[in-house]
Design a protein that fits this description.
28% of the residues lie in helices and 21% in strands. It has 15 helices and 26 strands. The strands form seven sheets. It has a seven-stranded mixed sheet. α2 runs antiparallel to α3, α11 crosses α13 and α12 packs across α15. It is found in: Nucleus.
Length: 570
């Protein structure tokens, strides 16, 4: 039976609930105390836990489903808000939590596939599969890792087995599971954890997913099947760098197939990338990754160009643009004749079709058959610092990735803005690079808007300068077809590329100018002609602030400074 002390404690805690629920639960507790329910101890304990977690999670059907229900499994199934579909582009997810709720999973999806969704963002510490509901809960080691994952997948819709899935924060701060009832998922999780930490398999653990094996080499061999859209070296780097530091990439064509060798600094990173990416599609229904371990343990890159790259040696020459495949590597690769296994069901990689194709198009190398540039051109940007943000600052930052036409900061929600780009490819590119970045101290969220255009205020109506038309701005970077700017689009980084510097401006002048934006200048390097330079700030956030403040800054002598993000380091 329930002790009187526990009964009183729970009654006292229930005062936080609304009146209807209060009466219902108090009545239930009285019944428990009188012994009318033979498993009252379980119910009262569950109610006590439910009160701590909030009224929206209290007494779901799972709590009363069985008198022997284990409490550890109840905590994760009693969740009211997790099942509410995200509606309306101005609504944000709930409070951040390291536990994520994943919905709309395909019925046949495996634990490994769900775990792989979280691997690029940090250590996965627990998983609960609710296959009857096509749902799962995934727990990451830190809340920061979960925030990064949600930010990324809010802009890039994840797919499993060609089906879009939905990820949001759970109301639960910790995922407690009964391992005896969740053995398969726990076995997979332990095997993946072993790869992440020790790179050795766990003895005595049986895992049906044969992909969970110890890494053999830090070098991966990659073949692209069904290559409907071009895949560039930069696209491969963007995808694979989410699993660790990519040191070198060599791309080439063999047997009429695009292939690549990619080297990580650690074999564990190679194992994680293979586990998550093998058999997945870069673009929807095409460009399928076939990944295996190479027998090579080190790549010898001779040139840094669009065919090969050594990220540890930025000083390498560009060569003549020919494939920089060393003859010794080519000979070793020729011996690796085993075919890569083809999974029965392919899963499209979490990169949207237009965004990845836009990256290739931005390099000025390809047209994009089947990908319309007339897609959604309007972005919704939320969680802005409403005290600091202006249409001009948004124009400058988003203008790095496309020609911004109009900006409207919402009158009744000044932490949100609509930004209209010149075409759908530019909006996808801006969204993929800027979602989750910090601007004026706040992590911004960038998604596609339901609006097709940004309306200007009616004539004579004063909207306090919240809307601005930049359609005829001379500062558009991409108006000129074939501009070199298309070849220099990179994610935000701490290193900035400066150009159009007059001869009279010295290194000290530029250091002082950028330090005045509120950050710290860590390094500086002039190019040989002194018309361009690289400047490194302490953080990416500081670099973003400096770019907003100083792009188009008048340096005198009719020279306006041009600032962009660089892929290089100093």
């Amino acid at each position: 039976m329930v002790s009187w002390e526990l009964f009183c404690e729970v009654i006292f805690k229930i005062h936080i609930l609304d009146t209807v629920r209060k009466l219902a639960i108090q009545t239930l507790l009285v019944c428990c105390f009188l012994g009318l329910l033979h498993y009252s101890q379980c119910i009262v304990t569950d109610v006590a836990v439910g009160v701590k977690r909030g009224s929206d999670e209290l007494l779901s059907g799972s709590v009363l489903s069985s008198p022997t229900t284990n409490m550890s499994s109840i905590v994760v199934t009693a969740n009211g808000n997790d099942n509410k579909k995200f509606k309306g582009e101005d609504k944000m997810d709930g409070a951040p939590s390291r536990v994520l709720h994943i919905r709309k999973l395909p019925g046949e999806v495996t634990e490994t596939e769900v775990i792989a969704l979280g691997l690029p963002f940090g250590k996965v510490t627990n998983i609960l599969m609710l296959k009857g509901k096509n749902q799962a809960f995934l727990e990451l080691a830190t809340e920061e890792a979960a925030i990064t994952m949600v930010n990324y997948y809010s802009a890039v819709t994840p797919h499993l087995r060609n089906q879009p899935i939905y990820i949001q924060y759970s109301n639960h701060k910790e995922l407690k599971t009964d391992n005896t009832l969740n053995q398969r998922a726990q076995a997979v999780l332990q095997a993946v954890t072993a790869v992440q930490t020790t790179n050795t398999p766990i003895s005595g653990t049986t895992v049906s997913e044969s992909a969970v094996t110890p890494a053999q080499s830090p070098v991966l061999r990659i073949i692209i099947d069904n290559m409907y859209y071009p895949v560039t070296l930069d696209v491969l780097h963007q995808i694979f760098s989410k699993f660790g530091a990519v040191l070198k990439i060599i791309t080439f064509t063999k047997n009429n197939q695009f292939q690549a060798l990619l080297q990580y600094g650690d074999p564990v990173n190679a194992q994680q990338a293979k586990l998550a990416l093998d058999g997945q599609n870069i673009y929807n229904a095409c460009c399928t990754l076939r990944i295996d371990f190479s027998k090579l343990v080190n790549l010898n890159v001779k040139y840094n160009n669009d065919k090969s790259r050594d990220y540890t040696r930025p000083d390498l020459p560009s060569g003549d643009g020919q494939p920089a495949l060393d003859p010794a590597i080519a000979a070793a690769f020729a011996k690796e004749t085993s075919l890569l296994a083809v999974p029965g069901a392919l899963s499209p990689l979490g990169i949207p079709n237009a965004a990845a194709a836009a990256a290739a198009a931005a390099a000025g190398r390809v047209g994009m058959p089947g990908v319309s540039s007339g897609g959604n051109t309007v972005l919704l940007v939320s969680n802005l610092n409403e005290e600091m943000v202006t249409p001009q600052s948004l124009f400058t930052l988003f203008g790095v990735y496309g020609d911004v036409q109009r900006v409207k900061i919402l009158y009744n929600k000044k932490d949100s803005a609509l930004i209209q780009m010149a075409d759908g490819n530019q909006s996808q590119l801006a969204m993929s690079h800027l979602n989750g970045q910090k601007m004026y101290g706040k992590i911004i969220r960038v998604t596609l808007s339901k609006h097709q255009t940004v309306q200007l205020p009616r004539e004579g109506l004063d909207d306090q300068g919240l809307t601005k038309d930049f359609g005829n701005s001379p500062l558009h970077r991409f108006k000129k077809p074939g501009s070199k700017n298309f070849q220099n689009i990179f994610p935000p980084s701490a290193t900035l590329h400066l150009s159009n510097i007059p001869p009279s401006v010295s290194e000290d002048d530029l250091r002082m100018l950028f330090a005045n934006t509120g950050g710290t200048v860590k390094a500086f390097k002039f190019f040989q002609d002194h018309k361009m330079a690289l400047l490194q700030m302490s953080t990416v956030e500081e670099a973003i602030q400096a770019l907003i403040d100083l792009h188009n800054y008048n340096l005198g002598e009719n020279h306006h400074l041009r600032v962009s993000f660089s892929k290089s380091t100093i």
